[in-house]
Amino acid sequence: MNKKKLALEIIERLAKEYPLAGCSLEYNEAWKLLVSVRLAAQCTDARVNEIVPKLYEKFPTVDALAQADVDEIEQIVRPCGLGRSKARDISACMKMLKDEYDGEVPDDFDALLKLPGVGRKSANLIMGDVFGKPAIVTDTHCIRLVNRMGLVDDIKEPKKVEMALWKIIPPKEGSDFCHRLVFHGRDVCTARTKPYCDKCCLNDICAKAGVEKGKKK
User: Fold this and answer.
1) Domains of the chain as residue ranges with CATH
2) Which listed residue (121, 129, 176, 208) is catalytic?
3) Active site residue 63
4) Do 24 and 45 form a contact (C-beta atoms < 8 A)?
5) The whole model's pTM is what?
6) Alpha-carbon span 152 to 197, nearest angstrom
7) Hey, how many other C-beta atoms are within 10 angstroms of the C-beta on 5?
8) Is 99 designated active site?
9) If both were cysteines, with which of 24, 82, 131, 164 could 45 make a disulfide (CB 3.0 to 4.6 Å apart)?
10) Catalytic residue among 89, 129, 139, 176
11) Chain-centroid distance, C-alpha 80
């Protein structure tokens, strides 16, 4: 099975396994997702979801957060780790939204990349979840799983993984596919324990599972 056919089969099976999978960061406005995805670096989504309501209670709008003192932001977001750098990025990002985009999040990938603290992963998340545009979010789950499945060949650099996936993943499927990889990576194809290949819906087509079966023979 070539990589394109394998990708389509994996997409179909994961869609059946996780039909409601979506972004696990909670938000109701685009700028809040920008804040949350910055805080999520080296932090769990669950912790971010716990912290951001405190931030928005004190600074409920883009303007309020743009005008906030970085030290005040840091005090609130510190439990997410890397508090100082995250606070600085959030402050600078909100200022740029306020000054250059009238407080609105731009729906252009290159424009998103110019925002402080926004990289390709964050920009793709915004493009897919907020604007419904083609997106591939290469987070740690995505990188680990697509290598295990055989969709990419020993590629660990996020941008290179993203570029390889664009060649085999239909654009309209990219965003949902990546969200489903997160769920599958947490529940089945885990990082900190041995993957639960015996209960995996991809067991018979996964490259890693095939190697493990070969070792047992």
Assistant:
1) 3-21+137-216 (1.10.1670.10), 30-129 (1.10.340.30)
2) 121
3) no
4) yes
5) 0.93
6) 19
7) 11
8) no
9) 24
10) 139
11) 16
